[in-house]
Amino acid sequence: MPAAPHPFDEAIGLEALPDGAFAGHASPAYWNMVGPYGGITTAQLLQALLLRPERHGDPVSLTVNFAGPVAEGRLQIRTQLMRSNRSTQHWTATMVQTQDSGSDSESVVAVAMAVFGTRRPVWSHTEARPPSIAPHDALPRLSHPQAPAFTRRYDLRFERSPFEHPPADSSSTCWIADHPPRPLDYPALASACDVFFPRIFLRRGKLVPVGTVSLNVYFHADAAALAEQGATPMLGAAQCQIYEGGYFDQHGELWGRSQRLLATTHQIVWYRE
Amino acid sequence: MPAAPHPFDEAIGLEALPDGAFAGHASPAYWNMVGPYGGITTAQLLQALLLRPERHGDPVSLTVNFAGPVAEGRLQIRTQLMRSNRSTQHWTATMVQTQDSGSDSESVVAVAMAVFGTRRPVWSHTEARPPSIAPHDALPRLSHPQAPAFTRRYDLRFERSPFEHPPADSSSTCWIADHPPRPLDYPALASACDVFFPRIFLRRGKLVPVGTVSLNVYFHADAAALAEQGATPMLGAAQCQIYEGGYFDQHGELWGRSQRLLATTHQIVWYRE
Hints:
Two copies of one chain form a homodimer.
Chain A: H1 7-11, E1 15-16, E2 21-26, H2 38-51, E3 58-66, E4 73-84, E5 88-98, E6 106-117, E7 125-126, E8 154-158, E9 172-178, H3 186-192, H4 199-204, E10 210-219, H5 223-229, E11 234-239, E12 242-244, E13 247-256, E14 260-271
Antiparallel strand pairs in A: 1-2, 2-4, 3-6, 3-10, 4-5, 5-6, 8-9, 9-11, 10-14, 11-13, 12-13, 13-14
Helix pairs in contact in A: 2-3
């Protein structure tokens, strides 16, 4: 009997349609407060591009603008190759949903742009340094029974619960892994870039209404780095720079084995209060 | 006799065409090594969106993917409103050029996504701190006669020339202003986000072939902050996190008067060697 698919693979599963379109569904397993977790939407958009037979190279940059809430049920992703060069490709992807099954009216729920490129053996250097944290096995898995479903799809381990001890600044460090464990690939790396709790929760020590407006991922891992990482937990760090007029930013880093920086990520988030 | 327009206004000047399209030109005044300065391309794309009568709200997020070199001469920008919500709008813009005037073949040279939003008087706080630097008047304007034209459109002042004293890390701090002075607006702020020299030049102490692949700008200034800034020089800081396999990232901050963080920016840059 074949093993049941990993919830992540089920969530990003897509059916190819004509003309570069794909059919998928909003994943209940990765549900957040009022729609699916933004990381899974990001992973679906990337997966659609990875499935295009014309695609060459690895993901270098991915930006997702969240245009509106993703509803339960079916969704469609339309992909377009905007330009293909010798070593880079530029793609766009749009996620749409039919809001009323009785009509043809559809809404754009997310728009994305991606660059794929060929990595080469050139002079390389990591200027950033990984944060320090207690060993993974020494820390308990974060568990909030009332937290949204998607949090149960991750194994997150903090030295200090970000909610119980709001620090003077919003920086936090944690271990991050898919739960159950799953070998790292580009969609999973993209999804994990959204796993950092909104910094305003930490800074203010309470939950306030928020919604990510735009998420940016720079991939620094090649296939060999992903294979070396496997299902080993990643080390994540995130911090905010400014909360201003209803929008705050946050930047994050995802570190792998051997002090390898796998991805850097930025997002700007709408907030109230 | 009316004063000649500022080179920046001339560079971002656009003529409205039907169906949300605009005609412009690649600016010789902002020329870089093999095409216009990426900041001016970014400003043109933003300006097209700002000119759309349906646009409401201020820029919150702008991402530009540079798909190919912009050639001399005419260009076209096609804008599309993807979704309009109560307090946010999602737009896309594509810059195209007809590569051969004798045919209809056109190439996409840049694709962009932007979010516009309404800022509100809510709890606000700046967690980042501005870097320190000697007073603007105490520093000489950077001058390299052989540098590309666009550098002469800026007044950049460093405490330490980033090229003559390559530091152990790639961080640098400088004063940034349009030259001649020009009151700050969103296109100028977006353009200035690309003014930081490629970090690999600083880190390696030499020029190597580079090209920005994707540029991301988060705007934190409202109209009042822009007006308060006027033509006062901004304080900029930038640093790289990783150079890996032919792509490096860099992040930057643009600070205004009264320790106001006006914009944060990220880019990923292709490099060779």
